[in-house]
Amino acid sequence: MKKFFGAVVAIAICELAGGIGAIFTMPAVGGWYAGLVKPALNPPGWIFAPVWTTLFALMGVAAFLIFQKRIKNKAVKTALQIFVLQLALNVLWSILFFGLQKPLSAFIDIIALWLAIAWTILAFWKIYRPAAWLLVPYLLWVSFAAYLNYAIVILN
């Protein structure tokens, strides 16, 4: 039961990060963002919420699995610190892109986010490979988001 609640807490923390990002995203979606020229591959708006909710849940499970390993050396602590860094960069992207309406600054952030996710995957891989695999869809989605962000910078 303790493990179940630990997993729930880890998922909730990640979903909370998504909720913070949504605070900045939601007001801009119908206004500023709607007026932007978007690339041809821009998905419909309804897809973002379920995708991000799923990705944040996967991130929470991955972080919980790593936390459970509690290796005596610094590997787990370092991996979780990197994880927190990428989570903060994720929230920052929403603030920059939607909150401050700065797509170029957000693009710089998303490159840092992509690198931090890749670093997290490598750190998790050394501890527990299934946890690392859980972050691969996140890295793929952020790769696509980086393309969308870049295209919006160029088109606008």
Structural summary, described in words:
With 156 residues, the chain is mostly helical. The protein has a single domain, classed as TspO/MBR protein (Ferritin, Up-down Bundle), CATH 1.20.1260. 81% of the residues lie in helices and 0% in strands. It contains six helices and no strands. The protein has helices spanning 2-29, 48-69, 75-99, 103-127, 129-134, 136-155.
CATH superfamily name? Answer: TspO/MBR protein
Low-confidence stretches: none
Structural class: mainly alpha
Largest sheet: none
Query: What letter string, H or E per element, gives the SSE order?
Result: HHHHHH
The tally of helices reads 6
Task: Tell me the β content.
Answer: under 5%
Rg, Cα atoms, Å: 16 Å
Mean pLDDT: 95
Describe the structure concisely.
By secondary structure, this protein is mainly α. It is built from six helices and no strands.
List the helices and strands and how they pair.
Layout lengths: L1 H28 L18 H22 L5 H25 L3 H25 L1 H6 L1 H20 L1
Descriptive terms for the model:
single chain; 156 residues; mainly alpha; 6 helices; 0% strand
